[in-house]
Amino acid sequence: MRRLLLALLLALPGCRGAHPEDPARVTLQVFAASSLTEAFGELERSFEAAHPGVDVRLTFAGSQVLRLQIEQGAAADVFASANPEHLQALRAEGHVAPPVDFATNELVVVVPLDDPAGVRSFADLPNARRLVIGAEAVPVGRYTRRLLDRAAETLGADFVAAVRARVVSVEHNVRLVRAKVELGEADAAIVYRTDAAATERVRVVEIPPALNVRARYPIAVTTRAAAPETAARFVAFVRSPAGRGALERHGFRAAP
Amino acid sequence: MGALLAATLLSLLVLPLGALALSTSIDDLTAGAAHPLFGPALALSLRTTLLSLAFTLLTGTPLAWWLARSTSRAARLTELLVDLPIVVPPAVIGVALLQTFGRRGVLGPPLESLGVTIPFTEVAVLLAQVVVAAPFYVQAAANAFRKVDPDTLIVARSLGASAPTAFLRVAVPIALPGLVAGASLAWARALGEFGATLLFAGNMPGRTQTMPLAIFAALEADVRLAVVFALVLAAMGGALLLALRLAPALWRRRRGAA
């Protein structure tokens, strides 16, 4: 009986020990922030086309959740975070090799296609009766608060107070923020440019460049990577001209 | 053999929560309880789950009674429909609720013209809980009512009891253990409700952020805080489930003494 249970456990995919890297058949586990969903989907396809035998498996979640999973021993080879903090912490704990920036992102306001509240510019934001933003604990929420702090300096504290009063929900990830506008339930939301680019059901309202906040995206190979060579090759690919092209097609700006 | 299998499941159920409890110190607990998100979320969770339970009992009991009594095809079909929300992922239920009560929903615009908006309010929290939790009560209550022998009701009626009296004084006491089990299950499910609430009611501290949402918010900021919140939720759930389980026996004893 005990042997049967053990056999059952070993049959589960995650329970097997690390195998030496066989270049003909490698599974590369890539953990990436939710905002990278579309861009990394494209990178996966082109990387697999260029490296037959490599199967890239993508896992998307909030950067904090992915960090927690890596700290708890999740089998990730590469981690691409929407925020430098989490990778720095993982680096300090010895879970990842030194990270490198590969992309930047910025904030935009999105409104439903029919723009029911008449939000045509960033200064119109208080027109929204229902505004949805990211929670303070997640990167998009922190960037949004930094944006509002800057707006307070130029557009005045009253503007920011009016905006804050319209917030009906603070969401835990940027896709949930966007969903509220896509469903027409929120009049406006603040998301990354890339999230706006990934749907046709929202309209973008630009934030003045002087106020906007730039988000850095770092990437690193984990120290327990089962396929470290392929992982390093994937990171190099993300930063290659082909990788940069894919990132830019999805609204990112490739890091210099 | 049987004991080994049972022990396997039991340890799977108990070990994770035990590990959580063991990894937490008293200092963590007091720090967690002092956190500004904690009090409002706990109060909101208690208030909304008790209200949604009251609503479920009030509306679910007559529905369950009909399901148990009726042999019609309509009743069997209804039984199936009542069970459906259990199968559907809660986040999808949240979207479905938005498409019902939201701005572009079926009932949203007429309600809005009456000045009633439901999404992102405490009412939305409550409705989400009712939809995900009520099926558990209705199912258990219908099964409990099926154990009530129709003859005992006929006898009660022949002795002069009105239909409501016969139901309340004869059927409900017989079915009580099943009703209580169903109510506890529904209440526990409502307390843990996350996905439908997140979509339909949003996450606004002090307004729509229930304990599970606060736990998720804490998880993004500080894992230890999330653990403390979860332990408090688990302890509260355990205490209330215990109370509900003991209630029928106490009630019977008091009635026996009277």
What is the CATH superfamily classification of chain B?
MetI-like
Shape of chain A: elongated
Largest interface: A-B, 25 and 26 residues
Helix content of chain A: 40-55%
Give me the CATH superfamily of the largest domain in chain A: Periplasmic binding protein-like II
Could you give the order of the helices and strands of chain A?
Answer: HEHEHEHEEHHEHEHEEHHE
CATH architecture descriptor name of chain B? Orthogonal Bundle
SS elements, strand count of chain A? 10
Mean pLDDT of chain A: 89
**Major β-sheet of chain B, in short?**
none
> How far do the termini of chain B sit from each other?
47 Å
CATH topology of chain B: MetI-like fold
Q: What does this protein look like?
A:
The complex is a heterodimer of chains A (256) and B (258). Chain A is of the alpha/beta class and 256 residues long. Chain A folds into 2 domains: 24-104 and 216-254, 3-Layer(aba) Sandwich (D-Maltodextrin-Binding Protein, domain 2); 105-214, Periplasmic binding protein-like II (D-Maltodextrin-Binding Protein, domain 2), CATH 3.40.190.10. Helix content of chain A is 40%, strand content 23%. Chain A has 10 helices and 10 strands. Chain A has helices at 2-11, 37-50, 63-71, 84-92, 139-155, 157-165, 174-182, 193-197, 228-239, 241-249; strands at residues 26-33, 54-61, 78-80, 100-112, 131-134, 167-171, 188-192, 202-205, 214-221, 253-254. In chain A, strands 1, 2, 3, 4, 5, 6, 7, 8, 9 and 10 form a 10-stranded mixed beta sheet that branches. The termini of chain A are far apart. Residues 13-18 of chain A have low confidence and may be disordered. Chain B has a single domain (36-257), classed as MetI-like (MetI-like fold), CATH 1.10.3720. Chain B contains 12 helices and no strands. By secondary structure, chain B is mainly alpha-helical. The N and C termini of chain B lie far apart (47 Å). Chain B is 81% helix and 0% strand. In chain B, helix 4 (73-87) crosses helix 7 (122-146), helix 8 crosses helix 9 (163-191) and helix 9 runs antiparallel to helix 12. The longest helix of chain B has 35 residues, at 223-257. The A-B interface holds A 1, 5, 62, 64-65, 68, 116, 130, 132, 135-138, 167-172, 176, 179-180, 183-185 and B 1, 4, 8, 95, 98-99, 102-104, 119-120, 198-199, 201-205, 208, 216-221, 223.
